[in-house]
Structures
1.
Amino acid sequence: MAEKIIVLAEVQNGALRKNTPQLVDVARRLKSNAESRIILVLAGPKIESVATEAAGLPVDQVVRLEHDQAWQGTSEEILETLHAARQELEGDILVLGNTSLGKEIGPCLAQRWGWGMISDVIRLEDHQGKPTFIRPCYAGKVFDEIEMLQPQFVLTVRSNAFPPAENDGRQAEILERVIALPKDALKTSLVEVVERPTGKVELTEADVIVSGGMGVKGPEGFEFLKPLAEVLGAAIGSSRAAVLAGFIHPSHQVGQTGKTVSPSLYIACGISGAIQHKAGMSTSKCIVAINKDPDAPIFEFADYGIVGDLFEVVPHLTEEFRKILQS
Amino acid sequence: MKVVVLVKQTFATEARIELDESGEIISSRVKKVVNPYDEFAVEEAIQLVERKQAEKAAVLSLGNTETQEGLRQCLAMGVDEAVLIDESGMGGADSSITAELLAAALKKIGFDLILSGYVAVDDNAAQVPMRVAEILGIPHVNVVSRLEVQENSVKAWREADGRTEVLATQLPCLVTADKSLNKPRYPTLPNIMKAKKKPLATYTPADLGVDLKSPGCRVVRHFLPAGRAGAHLFDGTPSEAAAALVSALRNEAKVV
Ligand SMILES: Cc1cc2nc3c(=O)[nH]c(=O)nc-3n(C[C@H](O)[C@H](O)[C@H](O)COP(=O)(O)OP(=O)(O)OC[C@H]3O[C@@H](n4cnc5c(N)ncnc54)[C@H](O)[C@@H]3O)c2cc1C
Ligand SMILES: Nc1ncnc2c1ncn2[C@@H]1O[C@H](COP(=O)(O)O)[C@@H](O)[C@H]1O
């Protein structure tokens, strides 16, 4: 069977969200034969330029969806628009990011359409010739390999777990569709949006994260980490203890009750490495720990470490990174 | 107004996970707790009753006899009644089957507002609540960090990626809790005693008349992630250690 794989691309701050090429990579791996098609769907108003960028990705078609009511920008609108476009799109597999949006609309569509669903996929494998999906459970302490028994299903994919698909030099065709929504389809209204100055890089998508814990001692400690983060173009993460102590906004918290991140490089400064913290960052490709306690648990799962006072070590690190990155 | 909270009994977050010879997760020795996110939902429900915005708060769980313990804890925190759907003998339920059973029970016991955690820390699926809302045909707000309940509607603050959204929708609806919703209380001893007399009803899937579908996916195997060998430590002065570390990140790990 030649399946049709729908990838939903998210638009963030007027640009294609960084995980989009990663989702396309997953879709390419899922193609069972040369006839399989990948459709990249964009939903929302005023996204012409984003659509052109998206069409450069190795997909067969880009479909731009709008609906016929006033856009507010809620996830419910994207949910209802995709649902209403179901016949037209005729997909078999829906690939979403494991983002706020994906976590919300994935299970809704799976339930409505009677499809299967696997959330937070980090790897694809093969079991007796059938694709299987690897996902972390129990806060990353166990991984499950899952086989899909239904032909049609939804996946949500963890950011940074797959490499980005490279542009292939061709531009895919762009279709535009305005979807008529049933009158009573939208039940939720957006009262207000508070954009948060979380720094330029969104934590869950950052390629590098500099994270601070109780060892940074106070809100000034996070200011102290900033030059290092800036040199690396990194997002700032934190432990829960640092959030509870009021050092930093909760949106920076990494861990079981915070965000799950999977950067190439995670630098933990003054973080002990509690199991609940590890839960949110253990799939990072490379973990560095700076801690003055040689017995801190973080050294058991970090790849590299320096035993020392972060206030002494971090400025040297910043300097060394600056040397290599600016040469 | 009646608030019903969906609660799941899960492994304690600090529990070590081990596999037996056949590759199954050993659960018998592990301490069980109410899923941490569900505790936020329970606390919110109790506060709604305390503020007289709701008449009654109930908890609902799909589980087995062991789950009664978690439900008793919720009763001791202050909810008025508990309902258990006993799935013993069903051999486990996936997100879709769980949602069908919970939705059927919700219809039976009645609700105006459904609260739940947004994700269970054991299966990490974050699917059940959205599926329940779909089956019941009611609106939802997912991953909420602050909630205001009005006469016929709710206003909910949620952390979407990079921004906070304030959303409004009509009752009946379903709202899932994020960690910053509130600070769950501990049951006091007198309330633990009182909880023993509060009603805890048990249904079987058959009582709910749900036609159970076969699961949509199958776990081929569980496996433990490959352990990291332990950190390579760099000694010397802070400046020497930093230089050696950055060189390793560039030349060995190739991440910068
Ligand atoms: C249900 C539940 C959920 C949780 N969820 C999360 C979560 O999502 N995320 C999370 O992070 N935690 C979570 N926790 C909390 C977790 O158990 C730990 O308490 C927390 O991670 C500790 O934070 P920390 O490492 O910053 O603080 P600490 O454990 O106090 O560690 C501070 C570290 O800094 C080091 N240090 C101190 N001074 C210096 C210095 N000058 N230079 C270098 N090193 C220094 C110390 O040696 C120590 O190792 C959760 C707990 C529970 C029960
Ligand atoms: N067996 C269950 N019984 C009651 N509620 C559940 C059950 N499974 C999941 N839930 C609810 O759904 C939320 C998300 O669970 P999950 O989809 O498994 O990640 C949990 O926090 C619970 O509130």
2.
Amino acid sequence: MTQHLETYSLLENCLARLNAGEDLELILAQYPQQAAQLRPLLAAALRARQSGRPLRIPASAQIDSRTRFLAEAQRRQSQPKSFFPRLNFAGALVTALVLLFAGIFGTSLASAKTIPGEALYPFKRVVEKAQLALTTDQSTRLKLEEEFDRRRVAEAEALEQNGRIESVRVAGPLEESDDETWSVGGVKLKLTAEQVVLARTLTGSYIEVNGQIRGEEGIEVESLELRLFTFSGILEAIQDTEWTVSGVKVLVMDSTQITGKPKVGKRVDLTTLRYDEDYFLALTIRVTGGSNGGKLEETDKGGKNTDEPVITDIIDDVPVPTIELTRTPEPEKSEPTHVSEETKGSNSGSDDKETELPELIETLLPTKTPD
Amino acid sequence: MNYSLSPDMDIDGLLARAHQFDPQALSQLHDQLYPQVYRYVAYRLDDPQACEDISSEVFLRLLDVLKKKVQTVQSARAWVMGTANHLVMDYYRNKYRRKVEKLENHDDLPDYHSPEGETESRQVHQEVQDAMLNLTDDQQHVIALRFSQELSLEETAQMMGKTVNAVKVLQYRALAALRRQLDRRYM
């Protein structure tokens, strides 16, 4: 038995040496007694290794898979819905009070210029969150999020100049300059070789970086990922692949995971990426129901009463009381917000999005070279 | 494509956030694991569409067990690779017979995706895949883990939930069996 174990270990040693690039014959020459036994096994191993030829993983496949994964997670999570809708209202109240407080004491102004590490800084972030929560117009809210992203960048620049070391999170377009230095919104990044490989696939995309800023050296990156924007609103128009949701232009592609039956007038939740200045690219769209079941087109005229969007998610991770504005409290409406399993079926409105959009993904990842 | 500094480190409690279905954490987890899963599946099948479908299905199934069974990135990786193995086996059980018939009838068709240099490696790939189908599940799994992406013995053991010695024995037998199959077919 031990003798057998030695043989097994010997094979493993030889495999390791083969992997390291040593020549089969040279290896075998060292074990003349076992050579006859080892040779066929090592030859098979060489074949097996040759069979794992270098393989390009299609970026579109990975993005599709990620999209399905996120959409499925979102679908599962939405099944048991929030038990205490009133808490959300309480959350809104708290944020309103914070804003009021900020207004009275002028702290929001005072804190506007603070940077991470300073006493008023957390306050600045809470005020920002409150502003976001109270902004009901979706396109304004997304602009605001981007405005806050720019503030993070400006703060990082200030930290860079002060030579401070702080944890930061910045978001913006990822750029590579001619001398191969990387930056997000102009702030320098220190990337490991492995991260550079990833960065190459994301050049030009709107990304989010977490890390430590170390003065002029820039940000030592801990994680680097695509910046997701989530929001919800009323689906106002569907024109092929271009949809409008509460004034925001959204591109819908083949791989966009659509749950429910999207129709003009219905409320939808979206997870998106920044595509360019004008458009967001939808990863997932979930129909969360219309205001009155089926005949929704009419709401277009009156507009305002249903158009007030519900903010379902604030992306930033500073824990602040749940910020979710509910519409004017109407207690009789106890029907749960999520759509039931009409999921898989006909996406009547979205069928014509077939052809155009796979290349959107390619553009999102501009460095992808064709095979 | 890894979305974070070190694929094995549970940065910022990635798994804890993934358990909450936090989209950022989930996409980070997905992107860390996807390339390995894809490579593994592509090693075992020659059908790009099935390869994409299976890789994607692995992640949907991960959602079923994420909270209960997966506490570290490493255990997530072991789980997805094990599931990839099962799905590949299912694929062959369900569909392979029909496909083989078709392929065998069209063996002489030119392979239009392959530039000259690649033809040979595609052929090797095909041979190894065919030969592997006659190995046991575990033998196929160990060969794919070790040779689709050069995992170390220790990593392979971890993924298979076996001891290092057990994997040594298993790979020995797997290579012996592979060799016999290749001999019978091509050598």
